[in-house]
Amino acid sequence: MLPCQRHLFDIPYDVAYLNCAYMSPLMKPVIEAGNTALARKAHPWELTPEKFFTGSDEFRATAAQVVGGTAEDIAIIPSASYGIATAARNLPIGKGQRILVLEEQFPSNYYAWQRRAEETGAALKVVAWPEGHDWTAAVLNALTDEVAIAALPHVHWTSGGKLDLVRIGEACRRIGAALALDLTQSLGALPFNVREVQPDFAIAANYKWLLGPYSVGLMYVAPKWQGGRPLEENWIQRANARDFSSLILYTEGYDAGARRFDMGERSNFALLPPAVRAMKQLLEWDVARISETVGGLNRQLAAGAEEVGFSAPAEPWRAPHYLALRRREAIPRELPEMLAREKVFVSVRGSSIRVTPHVYNTIEDGERLIACLRRIAV
Ligand SMILES: Cc1ncc(COP(=O)(O)O)c(C=O)c1O
After folding, report:
1. d(CA 97, CA 102)
2. Rounded distance, CA 370 to CA 209, Å?
3. Fewer CB atoms inside 10 A, N or C side of the chain?
């Protein structure tokens, strides 16, 4: 287990921030990297043409270490929805076929598929919330021959349910279905590797479990799709982009690997360095150790919550870093505000209280939440 890393964050002692699934706090060294990066544009003459490429390639190389694969397989995106729209545009689907999604799946990983189904005469196939919380079994059961695309997360965002993506990946390959993943609620906190899962696309926004800034994301694109069609056509994706003097010699060719899928202005001088700094810290801590450490905090929290009438899916059905507490009676909508007055921060999503600590949290943070629930969740 990792020792508590709160000293690296600017979190006052009386704040119990248990809401990483909403937005992670930035680490002090990440803020420093961000301040330095933003200030570089005070001297634009120092932002020479090669800097449009070096920072992006460092992001790609670091993201590849987090997700598996190589730097060539990584595209730079502004949001999960951008990546999912790219996957939806490129994965083939025909009339009568199905796109598999989960009940209560995050909207960014739903609307794009709904639109794609409408446009092609396909339809969504929605996996119902399973009684015993076993999302993997429910997905495997639903992966029948008419499914052309499985558009899934690693962790279900309202239940904390964990999907066994290795088994799901195998099942997809058996029936010839593509696998597109939204890893926004798991990458950085739950071990994952594209070599084991073999997805077609895997996407994550950096501002949650990757501990990075908002409006940066990464997209893994399997080599077989790297000849596909990007959402936008911009100058820097093209084969001649490195030679600024010949940009108007328009070319049909794209830059190598997944770079063709990069968003416009992907060089993002202000935000890529802090995103990279945060991912490097995660790699140093090691994602498996983060998962164990945060899982330990959540196990204690789940035991305390049970004493005050809440339950959560048990492991291994739920991801260690992600606790969704429910009880028979409804949860007051104003609960997050009531807790916030006590400087305890969680979210309510669907019918669950979502409790998502990280390595900056202490046992006392969890105890404060339980004490508040005992007092106010009546
Ligand atoms: C599962 C999941 N995917 C994606 C996102 C963010 O989506 P976007 O980057 O499109 O805003 C969230 C945000 O809460 C999320 O929970």
Report:
1. 17
2. 23
3. C
Q: How far is the CA of 82 from the centre of ligand 1 (A)?
A: 11
Say what the pLDDT of residue 249 is: 96
How high is the mean pLDDT of the chain? 96
Q: What is the pLDDT of residue 145?
A: 98
| Cα dihedral value 365, 370, 373, 376, nearest 10 | -80
Token reading at 124 = 């969504």
| Neighbouring-strand partners of residue 254 | 238
pLDDT tens column, 75-85: 999 999 999 99
Q: How far apart are CA 118 and CA 121, in angstroms?
A: 6
Domain regions of the chain by residue span: 6-26+287-376, 30-283
Ligand 1 centre and the CA of 183: distance in Å? 9
Strand order in the sheet with 352-355: 323-325, 352-355, 347-349
Residues facing 353 on adjacent strands: 325, 348
Which fold, 6-26+287-376? Aspartate Aminotransferase, domain 1 (3.90.1150)
From residue 301, alpha-carbon distances to 86, 155, 184, 235 in Å are 38, 19, 23, 50
Q: Distance, CA 252 to ligand 1 centroid (Å)?
A: 33
Mean pLDDT of 246-273: 97
Sort strands 352-355 and 323-325 into parallel, antiparallel or unpaired.
antiparallel
Residue carrying the six token digits 């950096």: 206
pLDDT tier for residue 378 given thresholds of 50, 70 and 90: low
Q: Looking at ligand 1, which atom is closest to the CA of residue 78?
A: 9
Mutate to test the pocket of ligand 1, among 101, 184, 206 (most ligand atoms within 8 A of CB): 184
Residue 201 DSSP symbol = E
Question: Which residue has tokens 């099942």?
Answer: 171
> Which pLDDT band, with edges at 50, 70 and 90, does 297 fall under?
very high
- Give me the architecture of the 30-283 domain, per CATH: 3-Layer(aba) Sandwich (3.40)
Let me know: does 49 contact 243? Beta carbons within 8 Å.
no
Give the single-character DSSP code of 27. B
- Res. 329 pLDDT band, cuts 50 70 90: confident
d(CA 348, CA 363): 21
